[in-house]
Amino acid sequence: METEKIILGIDPGTIVMGYGIIQQKGKTLEIIRMGVLKLGKLDNQALKLKKIFERMLEIVEEYKPDEMAIEAPFYGKNVQSMLKLGRAQGVAMAAALYRDIPIFEYAPRTIKQTITGNGSASKEQVSKMLQAMLHFDEVPEFFDATDALAAAVCHYLDRGKDVNYTKPKHSRKSSSQQWAQFVQQNPERVER
User: Fold this and answer.
1) pTM summary value
2) Phi, psi at residue 140, to the nearest 5°?
């Protein structure tokens, strides 16, 4: 029986929030949609959170994802920024939970490592790798959209027990060796 699943990826933010939606059909993966929610013109934090909740509910209702993958806030020095980002993430998660969608959280470094083989990859490198993997040409105005897409693809690969990718557990291989193994196991996903 062929597995079919829709995964919603979220890159939380209080100025720009990215989202990406992918569909798994068996062992193939295709992009359904990616975009951003621009919140910069709203100066009230509560209104931003309301807008995030409403838009996430709209996306959930329209695309009916089976799972949500969300980028975890990274630890920074600015406590106020962290608090705002955590609230945005929480509201996006609440919208998914409101419709009983399971949520999976991934650290930014884990997402970059999974997509590019380098946990310190730039947003541009992540975007380029996703373009090669998912065969799309459009470069979004904001990398928040491809960051969200990366969260969804990371989840797909991480949960890929029924696909041709196995994540090594506690491997002592270097990231370049892990990447070489991934390329060898998934030649159809890498454009040469």
Assistant:
1) 0.81
2) -65, 155
| CB-based contact 106:149 (threshold 8 Å) | no
What are the residues whose beta carbons fall under 8 Å from the beta carbon of 105, sequence distance 6 or more? 69, 70, 71, 72
Which domains are delineated in the chain? 4-189 (3.30.420.10)
Helix or strand (DSSP H, E) at 32: strand 28-38
The mean pLDDT value of the chain amounts to 85
Q: What is the DSSP letter of 10?
A: E
* Burial class for 112, CB neighbours closer than 10 Å (0-12, 13-18, 19+): buried
Q: Are 19 and 9 in contact (CB under 8 A)?
A: yes
Q: How many Å apart are CA 191 and CA 173, to the nearest integer?
A: 23
Active-site residue set: 11, 71, 144
